[in-house]
Every structure is written in C-alpha cells, then in structure tokens.
Structures
1.
Amino acid sequence: MEELTPDKATTALVTGGGGFLGHAICKLLRTRGLAVRSFSRQAYSELDDLGVDCICGNLADKDAISSACNGCDVVFHVAAKAGVWGKYEDYYVPNVVGTANIISACRAHSVPRLVYTSSPSVVFNNKPIEGQNESLPYADKKRSNYSQTKAIAEKLVLTANGPALKTIAIRPHLIWGPRDNHIVPRLIAQAKAGKLRIVGDGRNKVDTIYIDNAADAHLLAAEALQTNGDAAGRAFFVSQDEPIAIADIVNGILRAANLPPVTKRIPFTAARIVGMLCEAWYYLLRLQSEPPMTRFVAEQLAKPHWFDISAARTELGYTPRVSITDGLRRLEDWLTTHECQI
C-alpha cells in the first residue's frame, strides 16, 4: 500500500481526537509528518503537545463540523457515543446526525476521503460468531442503542461512497491498551471491588485489537482509498487475528495490572436474568449511569465472537504488528507508571 505522507495528504481531521482511539490515530499521523486537526467537545493538552490543532465543538453543530472539514484531505470520523445504556436519542444525535453532518461537510468542501470507525456490534444478532466475514448481515433486531445507531451511520457512510468522496468503514473489535478508558479500567475496578465474574465457562473465544494495531488499520484504510478502488464503499473487520478464551484475555489484563486472576463465575442464564433485572431497575428509577449488567453485555461476554479478517489483509494490507503478548507487556509498563489515572 502507498504510505500516507505529507505530499499525499496535507491535512487530516480526526473527530474525537482526544479519545482513546482518536488520540492514537492523531499520534500516528503526526509521526508521519501530517498536519492534524482534532474535533472534540473539549481541548486536550496531550494533543497540543503533539502539535495537533484542537477544535472544540459538537457533532450536532453542522457549521462547526463544516468549518473543521474545510481544507482537509482526509477525515477520520472516530467520535461517537458508546455504551450499553441510555436514551435512544442520546445515541442517535451524535452517532447518526453527527455522521450525516460529517458526510455533508466532506461533500461541501470537496474532501476526497472519509474513514469511518464502525463496530462489529452492528452484526451481532445474539448468535455465536466464529470466523465469519463481512458477508454477515446487519443485526435484524436492536441489541443496544449504540449498535443500532452505529449500523445506521455505517450505512450512511458506505452509501455516500462515490467518485468525489471515497468512503470506508473500519470495524475494530474490543480495543485495549495503554490509555484505555473503557475495558481496562472497568476490569481493574471490578476486580479490586471483588465484583468481577466470568460469564459462563470462560472458554468462549473472542478476538480483540491492541490500540496501535487499530490506529494502523485506519491509516491503511485511508491509503487504500488512494490506491485500491476495490476497498472503497466497504466495511472491514480488524482484530489481532488471535482468538483466545475470554477468561485468558481478562486474566492477562489483570496480570498486567498486578492483580490476581478472576476465578468466580456466573452461569449465562443467571447473568442474563441479572441484566434484565438491572435494566428494569434502572429504567424505573430513570438512572443515567450504566447498569453493572445488561442482557446485551451478558450475551457478549458468554458467546464466541471472532472474525475472518482476510479482507482487511488483502485489500488494506493490514497485519497486526503488535501481538497480544507484546501488547500486554506494554500495558503492564504503562499501568506501572499511570496507575493513578485508572
């Protein structure tokens, strides 16, 4: 693949540049010498230190998005509202309306390439997924407001593909690593509180993706839109390509945090009932925080879900350069010096 370099793309915009994945993409772009803008709800000193031009705004603000896209050669639309709980409207506005605004701004300012961060959850249909590829259909039933709105947004992006604006969607699966603000801190907090459980027997295989590999995949996608016409208008699963038992990856992260392995388990049926009760309780009390368990989370934790990433290897030239073993070692090093941030 032809490398994304300053003479190939003068300015890159990363929405959600202050987030976990967005920051990694910004950092990688800067190492290539590219001018980078970040569009986020707030300013981030870490991005300032990288030499990133930080623009504050809301994805629902069409004018702010339009201004941020003006003069860009490629847009990485990473920002989204994630989670498994909350009102549909709270997900729809940033994830769907925000994506529509990005597409509109790209067209208005003749931005030639748009790389969209999607999610494998758009195809999760409450069934095991073992080695299947992008031919999997979108889920026919709503499993979460997040997955539903991400599916709508992905369709918008891929439908927008054409000669003037080439688009692509990347579906990274369970991103983790240093600076993680979701999976790693949640596991550590629950383990320290004695509340962590393996749902089911823990032998169901899942595939994940280390943060640097996820960032690599996004830049490779942008490069593919320059050089490979077959990649445009498509979605691609990306992962470590190392499916392992979920108990092993959970305990690997705990080991990196110098914590003992989780040994307590809860049957899937019991976890799903707990999730249903938590949902009802939170709904009745109108609680905004995320429940400790939901039916969707129970299903995700108990069932295998890993994908065939052959398309990403072939069309994008993607190969995970950081293995799970090396990633856990890097995570351990980071946690040793950043434990106060978890």
2.
Amino acid sequence: NKFKLFIKKLGPGFITGAADDDPSGIATYSQTGAMFGYSHLWAALFTFPFMSAVQEMCGRIGLVTGNGLAGVIRKHYTKKILFVAVACLLVANTVNIGTDLGAMAAAAQLLLPIPFTVLLLGMTAVILLLEIFISYDKYVKILKYLTLSLFAYVIVVFTLRINWNDIIFATLIPTITLSRETILNIVALLGTTISPYLFFWQADQEAEEEIGSGKILGIGNGKPRVTKRDVARVRADTLVGMFFSNLIMFFIIATTAATLNTYGITNIETADQAAEVLRPLAGDFSFILFAIGIIGTGFLAVPILAGSAAYAIAESLGWRGSLFLKFKEAHGFYGIITIATLIGLTFNYIGIPPFTMLYYTAILNGIMAPPLILLILHISNNKKIMGKYTNSPLSNILGWIVGAVMMLCALALLVL
C-alpha cells in the first residue's frame, strides 16, 4: 500500500525523467562506458541540477498557463519562432521514434525466436493501441509502472565485480580531453539527457493534470488557479524524476565500463549488442536484465516521443489535443501520433545501423536543445505569461549555464 501511494503521488516530472532513459539514451550511455570507461561518469552528476532546472521551468509553464510550450509560443511569439521550435522537435522526435522501435525489436529478438519485422510491427501496434484507446488515467499508471524496468540497470551493477574507488574518483573528478571524439560524446550525453521532446512533454502533462483536477476544461482552454503548493509539488516531482534519470545513466555507464571497456570492447554497432556482449562477460542474468530494460524503456519513451509531437502540432494549429479526449473527439491529435510513429518506423529500413542512428539522434538533440532552452528561459521570465511564478535567480543561472555549455559544445564540433 505504501508503494502504491508513493507511485500515485509521482507525476509528470517522474515519468519525464524515466522516459529520458529511452533506448537512445541507453545506447549513448553504453557507448560512453565502452569507449571511455569510467572517465565520463562525472556527466551524471553534472547534468542533474541543469536538467532539473530546465524541466522544472517547463513543468511550471504548463502548470501556470494551462498550455503546452507550443500553445504558449503560438499565443505570445511570432509564427517564425513557433515554426522553428516545432520543426526542431519533429525532426529529432521522428528519428528517435524509429530508432527506439528498432532497438526494442532487436533486443526482444535476443529473448524470443521471432523475426525482427514481426516484432517491430507488433510492438508498434501495441504502443499505438495503448496510446489511442486507453484512458489517460490508466495510461499514466502504465507509464509509471514501466519505469520500474529501469531498475534492471541498478541490479546489473551489483552482479559484477567493480572497483568502487575508481568509480567514486571518476564521478567526482571530471576527465575531459579536447578531442573530437570526446566533444562528440559530451554533445550526445547532453542531448540524450536534456532533450527537446522532454521540454514539450512535461509542459503538456502538467496542463493535463490541471484538466484531471477540474481546474481547466482542456489544454489552452482556461487559465488554472495556481498556488505555491502546486509549484512546490511540480518542483519536488521534477527533482525526483531527474534524480532517477541521472541515477540510471550513472549505472548504465558503470555497467558497460566494467564489462565492455574492461575486456577491450570499445565500439558497439547496435543497442541490443550491448546486451548481447554482456552474456559471456557478466552471465545470463545481467544479459536478460539489460535486454528487458531496453524493451521496457522503449514502451515508455516511444508514446512520449509521439505524444509530444502531437501536442506541439495540435497546439500550433489550434486543434483539440489531449490524452483525456477519445479518438472520435480528437482525430487530428491522434492522427499525428499515428503518423509520427509510422514514419519513425520506416527509418529501420533505410540501411543505417540502428546504434549509429541512436547515437547520432542524441547528438541531433544536443544541437537543437540550446535555442529551445533560451526560449524557455524567456517564457519562464515573462511576467505577462507567468505572473508571479517567474524564475528564481538560481533557475536562471542554471538555465543560462547549461544553454551556453550545450551551445559551445555544439559549436566546438565545427572546429575540432
């Protein structure tokens, strides 16, 4: 009962944090551990306060305005800014959906003797059916329990022989070399951790929570009455979610560093290969947990990727869009979810290795996130939009630092 109560209290911030560790994230963290060993473990500690600050801003925007980010931009900014913001989201999300679906099917194939295409189409169909035809309340519960699959990566670490002194040192003492490979990996780590789709999703989910509590009739339909207690709830929920996200990131890097890197395996071409390689090195138990984690997080992340794209387009065009609405009440909204998922599906048949796509999707997110962070900072400091719930000085400092760091890293790729 206590566990159920704890799960019930967790909201959009926790689900957003868990969705951050999608197959693309798993692939990026796995490649980081394999290529750099423990030396990039500091990134998990570094990103926690920054992603917490950015996601809290997004959640607070949705809470205060009763709109998602696209709805706020449409009402208060130019069409050009809206187009650029939504275009950045759609490009990254569509590729991300496809690569996540491919990674899920490939991981499932390691556990089940079923053809890849059958698994891929089956998983895609299940995800679409759940997102379109299951009520929002039940759907959120499903998302929350899917996050439990991420604990597989915590369990894996404790089945291995690890020198914890090395891990503590690498976590507290950053190691950075000015090479293209290092900068590329830092951009990928930042991009898969602080991703555009998470910005849009959490803002819309906070607005959905307002619908559920009866404060507004629909997203963009009314401005909710907000209290300091509401803002504190969003902040606490977000901190828990982002801590959970970075904790899983830490353990995935540690796991692959202790196995793949230790045995001289520094390059893996597919996300499921990371799980396969662990079988002879760490035993079947670790391999099974790793594969299940990829599948579970995919079922969590793909609906969020498609959903955030649907929210953005629906709000941009002034359509009705909400997971509280049934299919017959929001054809356009659910149509976008379906189209985005199916277009993403096709990326598995263009001949690019899945892991390569996953890793470079993270880099793409890392390049597109900085301008969106600057826009979020502007919105969350605008008193006409946020009233008395604008950013604190600490939120602004953290937001500007991470935006600048991500922009500098992206620019460094052009120089090195």
3.
Amino acid sequence: MISNKTLTSFFHELCDVSARETLPRFRVGIQVDNKQDGGFDPVTQADREAEKTIRTCIEQHFPDHGIIGEEFPDVRVNAEYKWIIDPVDGTRAFVAGLPVWGTLVGLCRNNSPIAGMMFQPFTDERYICAGTGTQLHHKGQVIELTTNSDKVLSNTILMSTAPELFSTSEKRVFDKVSDRCRLTRFGTDCYAYCMLASGHIGMVIESGLQFYDIAALIPIVEQAGGVISDWNGDPITNGGRVLASANPQLHHEALTLITG
C-alpha cells in the first residue's frame, strides 16, 4: 500500500508538471480540435501534453501500475493499481477562458478509487485525497475539508455541468430535484465536486460521464464526508449518471425523487 505521505507528494509533483503544459496555453487563443462528429467535444494541445507528462511521471515512479487516460491508449489494465487521468476536465470551460476546469488524476486499487487530486492551476487550488481525509492546498495553507451538514433539501445549492448533457427524460428527473433546491447553477465541471467537498454546496447531479471524469473525485467527496453514487444508489464503476451529496440524508432524499 502506498503511504498517504508518498501519495500527497506525488500528487503535488503531478500538479507541478501538468501546470507547465496547461497554464501557458490558457486564455491565449490556442487551436481547438473537435473529437465528435455532429457535435462539439473539444480537445487542445493542453489536454494532450498534460496527459503525456503525467503518464511519464507515473511510469517513472510506479512502472508496474496501469494507466487509463482520456487522450491516449490504456496500459496494464489488469494491474492491481491503476491511475485514471483526465488532463483537462472541462475543456469547454478551458477554451472559453473560465477557470472552472481542472486536471484530474485518480488512483484505483482493484478498480476501486482510493485517492485522487483535482488541480486548478490558474487559482493554484490543489484538492487532494491521499487515502484518508481531503485537503485543499492553497497559498501555503493546508485546509482539511468537510462537507455541509445541512440536511434540508430546500436549503441546498445544486450544481451540474450543463443542461444539454441530459436527455429529455433525464432532464425531467433532474428538474424534480432542482425544483426542491434553493439554487441551481450550471457550468462548473469538476470544480462543483470540490465545492461540495469544501462545504459550499450540497449536491451535484450529472449524466453522461466517463470514468476518467469522476474517478479522482469519488475519494475527494467521500473522504470529506459526502456520498457519491449512480442514480440507483449503486457504486460508480464506469461513469454514467452521478449523484453526489453533502451527507447521507440529502442523498437519500434526492435518490427518492430520482427513482420515484
């Protein structure tokens, strides 16, 4: 088992090396390629180069571990430990100049997420779960994060990435929960889950996620005291529909609305 100290140090190294590839390309009008026929799924040189440098670091430190990333082929997928990489989660926000994207790196053991980081280099916010507890490393401070303890859905702030990611039937389900909440905000990608872990909001509901979109965020939310599952209340194994809540009571109430 990798120690918390080793993992924390390694996550900081990944933050540093990935920032060298992403930050100089942010808000400078770089070329954007589209990966989706008939739609818009952007990818930039920042995505590709950041993933390359993260993969290089993993190979140097943990050569027996598997690697699954968004931009390049998987390696050693049957390894006990696997690193899950989304080099720029929120590429749409990235190309729009909005600082709510982040670099995600998660660590799975036997396919279960056990540690993760979300790094926003423009604000230099490093959300790190190295196995026990979730911390925000920012401006020389280390802050232990705890989710909101408010159990009342009508007091809750709900976040999601974009309404167009939901199908028509999914949007009706989302609206049932949203109508019960105090406030709903869109456009936050991975940043929403860190606001949840920090206690600023109470819930995130998403659909259409890949595993690399969520693997790093699962331990960040859970180790801060939150609950995260699919829309049936089951563990997230392959992405898809995600519900994350600040506490079990909110989660149960939202699941009752979603499945009812």
4.
Amino acid sequence: MGTPYLWQMVVLGAVQGLTEFLPVSSSAHLVFAEFLLGLPRPGLALEAVLHLGTVGAVLVLYGRDLARLLQVWRRSPLDLTPGQPGRVVWLLLCTTAITGLVGLAFAEPLGALFASIRWTAIQLVLTGLLLWWAPRSGNRTLPHMTWADAGWVGLAQAVSIVPGISRSGITIVTALWRGIGREEAARYSFLSAVPAILGAAAFSLARDWQAAVFLGYSPAELLVGFTSALGFGMVAILGLVRILQHGRLRTFSWYCWIVGLGVLAYAWRCGV
C-alpha cells in the first residue's frame, strides 16, 4: 500500500480521535477496518503521531486542570489528606503504575488477540454490556478517591489492551462503580489516558524503531493526521462529557452490540 493521500490521513485521524475517547474501542475499529476493508493497520510512526494528537486533545481541554493539580502538589507533595487536590497526582501515578505493570506482563499474549476478528467482535459486545450495566452516578470527587479506586481504574485500563474493550468505557464505568461522580469519572479517565497513551506509543516505537523511522510519511501527511486526531479527539471528549451529564452512557451499548454482532455474523459466514 502506498503512502496515504491527505484525505486518508484526515480519516485515520478522525477514527483515532473519536474512538479513543468514545467508549466504542479504537482497537476494535482498527481490526475491523483491516478485516472488512482490507486496510492494513497504520505503521508505528503514524500510530505514534495519531496518539500524540489524542493526547493533545486532552491537554487542550484539561491542561489547565492538570497544571493546577501539579502546582498544588508541588507546594505540598507529601500531603495525602483526603480532599487535598494535589493528592490526585499521586492517585494518577498509582493508576499509571498498575496499568504499566499489568500491561507489560500481558501485552504480548493479549496483543496476539488482534489476529482474531471473532474475539474482537465478542469483546465489543461485552463492552456494550459493561456500558449498559454502569451505575448512573456516584457522588465522590477525585480528591476523595481512595488508593483502591485508583488501583481498580489502573487494572481496568490495563484490561483495555484486549481488542474490543474500550479504554475510556471500562475506566469510566469502573470509576462509577467505585462511587465517583459522572463528570469526575470522565475527568479521571481522560487525565489517566495521557501517560497510558504516551507509554503505549513509546513502547511500540522502542520495540520496532527501524520500522517506525523508515515508513516514508511526509511531514505534511503526519501533520494532517496529528491535527485531525487532535480536533476529532476534542469533539469526542466534549460529546462524551455532555452525554454523561445526562446519564446516557447506555446509548453506546447499542452501537457496540450492532457493530460487534454484525461483524461476528459476517466473520462466521465467511468462515474466519
């Protein structure tokens, strides 16, 4: 396959930006695109640039919030009193550490599941069930989260390595089950996505650096992909927050079920 046209880069960025934050699994859509459309997954360099775009979306919308948390944390880094805003930084570090440890331990066997279109479709259906049974809301804010809360979210984020399990979906639902408020659950999910996405991209690049370097994408193409992922990522974040405010997370269940069962039926019919 030759180098993508600029409009293809816009499409790839849109898919990455929307599915990274909407609870519909970006990994499932990559697998489905490869199977149904015959499109190979983006190379490592392009994947890294698209992931940077989605991280940029979080920083544009939540960068000031993160900076404020870091500022409070720097003034009293050892103050772990519940309700202290700077405490959230330690909670995010806890979540990131657990995600990283579990992810590194199981990345290879779970990554092999990308080869199974049926397994991916089934996991997307399970994501729909997870969203359907999510609690409507909790009442605790991030500074009042416990270490157990942070640990469970970190474990949930690691589970999203499995193709078809939505990272944003499973982390938000886990936070809701732990009694965190709707908007606060989304906020924590987005903030914890920054180190998780950057870490995953860095891990992939380090594992196959030569393949990432010699892919031949032009600076203009990479810039278009980055900008598209950033813009559509912002749209996805704002849209998801609005949906959560109205308690309509179940809306995405229908999408996951229709797409997952449709792909599963098609794969079964084709005998793959």
